[in-house]
Each structure stands twice: as C-alpha cells, then as structure tokens.
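User: Can you predict the 3D structure for this chain?
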Amino acid sequence: MRKGPLAVLVGIGFVLLFANPVASDTPPKGNLIGFLYATDGSTPLQGAVVRIKNIQTDEVLLSQETDELGITRIADIEPGLYIYGVTTKEGDFNSTDLVGVASGKTAKVSITLEEYSEREAEAVKQIARDLSLEGESLIGRVEEFSSSTRTADIFMIKGLLRKNDRIHVVGDKTDIYQTAKNLRKDGKPAKKVLAAETATLSLSQTVHAGDLVYMVSRKGLAPLFLSPLGIVSAVAGSGAVVYGITQFSDTKESSRFR
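Assistant: Here is the predicted structure, written as structure tokens:
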C-alpha cells in the first residue's frame, strides 16, 4: 500500500527523534520548554498557556501559565510529533508548525504570536469547524482554467486561501489534491486571499470551470481552536525539531468524493 505524505512526515520525524535508541522497551519521556513573545516578537508574554496534541494519539497536554519572562514548561511528554496552540487572556492562537519531542530530551522553542485582522479572524472561523470535523471545508469555485499557463482563477466563496495551504479540487471530471503554491491576487504574489476575492493559482493538473475548491486538513492536524485570534509560529532551539504543517508533497490522497 502506498504511504501518504503524512505517514512519510511522521516516519521522518521518528527517524530524527529516535536516531539514538536507548536500552529499554519504553523510551524515556521528553520535555518542552517554551519562550513566548507578544506580537512585537520581543516582549515576553506572561500568563499564557501552551496546549499540545500528539498527532498520532490525540493526547492533549497543557503547560502552566508563562512567568514574567514568558517561559513555561511541559514535562513527561511521550516522544512524537505535536500540533500546538496558545491561550492568552485575550483569546486563542493556532499554530502553523509541528514540534518534535525526542525521547529523554528537552525541546526548547521560541513562540511568537501574530493577530489576525477582524476580517481574517472571521474567515478562519467560517472554515475551522468543518476542518476539525470533516477534514475539509468548501472555500471556492473555479471560474476559469488556462491550459497554456496551467493557472486557475478561483472565486473565494468563504474563508481564506493562504500560500502553501492544501486544497482539494472536485468536479464531474476532477478530483485532485494540490498545495497552493504561486498564489496570486490581482496579478501580484499574495500570501492569502479572502472571501469575495479571486485567487489565481498554478496547478499541476487540469481543472474545469465550476469545480469546487476545498481547504484540506489532514487527520491529526486540524486546528486546535475554532475561533482563534491569530496564529503562532515557533523557532526551534536546542533539542527541538519544527516542521511546517503545510510542507507536504502532492502525493495522491484518498478522496471522499470517489
């Protein structure tokens, strides 16, 4: 059976994490130390809680509140890959990364918050529940496809489309997965396109006008929070491995429409 991209990612992570096996049937647990910063990237964030979820077991662990230096810790963590989020006094923030926790090691990561605009927050809220429950959420419709340039104009019905998001295009003759690379809006490179706007996207396969476009969240990688105020991103320090959630190949996935 052909392995999907998530299985490959998890496999790579575990090779990195367990390259030095210990002489025990049960590998020792790891720890995580977080250094949290406000949206300016330099001010320590006090009173925040880090939530992590193992992408294989769905086990959720919470840290204590960060101290005046923005530091917090989670101890006795099963080795593996974790999606994470941060809860502050103002609200919740989802991650754009996965953090690897190694056996018998302490992973140190610096975490910075980025707030959504009011419009972005509403767009994320529109699709978060479907992503969490179904793994996909309808976001747009193909208006036109150019076979010469291999680009599609996609009208955004709801939510948002960000560069490197994973999408699923479905129609009478179409059922493909694609990473949203080379995203453009109004003829210019764009990091995101919101509802009621038109995204232009390079595609590896042919699509057709009227095809529907879905945002995809793989099993175990759905956002932790359904109404986030923004996102958090991590920079790995000693003992940590950080992976971007959206960094997957275009290997064919199992479609619920087949």
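Confidence is low (pLDDT under 50) at residues 247-251. The two ends are 18 Å apart (CA to CA).
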